[in-house]
Amino acid sequence: MGHTTKMRDIIGLIKDKASQSKATLLSKPSNLSLQLALLRATNHDPFNPPNDKDIATILSYGHSSRATASTAIEAIMDRLQSTGNSSVALKCLITVHHIVKYGSFILQDQLSVYPSNGGRNYLKLSNFRDNSSSISWELSSWVRWYAKYVETLLFVSRVLGFFLASSSNTIEKDNQEEKISSFMNKDLLKEIVALVGLMEEICKRPDCLHVEGTIKLVNKVMGFVGEDYLSAINEVTVRVSEFKERLSGLSFGDSVELVCALKRLEDCKERLLVLSTGKKSLMESFWGLVSEVKDRVGADMVSKDEGKLVNWVRREKVSESARFGERVLISGDSVGFPSRRPRQGSFSYSRELMESYSLI
After folding, report:
1. Which residues in the chain come in under a pLDDT of 50?
2. CA–CA separation, 219 and 94 (whole Å)
């Protein structure tokens, strides 16, 4: 095993040197520093994350024209989608995550519209397998999960209108928080469902690697993911708090949708708590708010028409398989703004029916 691992490392080093030599000969002078920095950042070393200096060089291509930024994104994606090496693929994904967190607006914009034909950033790595060694085999599961996670993160960022946990969008995010009170219920629900989908994706992360020496690479991934998680908590808190103020004006469909989303979120609690060590007070406050709003909305639904729930659940099950990162709101009685007008009619509701669908 030791001899095989050593040979693999030597072969990887030779490939890295050959790629850099080829880039030096064939790359345009204007792109040479980008190509070399990318090759060094995404080398075949399975133990260490990309070098900060090389990442900084890649990010610098977002401080010029859109064409230059587009060239950088295309180079990263070409590298990602052409490799069969798990170390290279994982480092490409880390580089993409760097752009989400620290890239300039132009660089992030080019990432959000890649590919240029209007695709949705599908990285197409769900079947990625690298069985060249035990290390690469274990890293392959991280590549598959991390690619899906990055896709979900990009999707959520499009729904929110800004890149989650990005250091370059603080002003826009501040303005977004001020606008939330004027959002329509359906828009708030769409954002909550998207954020819940991101947290569910975090819960699907692979088990810790059993191969000694790969911890640094995985720790880099989970460091970024942990920061995203805290940002997601903040965004969910703002939106759930807003719904707390609107409880008396929620339509039946909005109520069901909100309870379903919050229950899905509570189902993630145990798996997510591992990422929040040292933030006990914040976590207690957050999960307390989620539980309170879910229970209050669920209790309010008890007084509403049972037939509506039956029809809603049937239609919701039909749409379940079509959901990607969000649940489609099918009920047609959602409202844009909270209304305190009393509803006409008197309804009785079966708590047993609601409990059977795990809504309360």
Report:
1. 1, 117-121, 324-350, 352-353, 356-357
2. 11
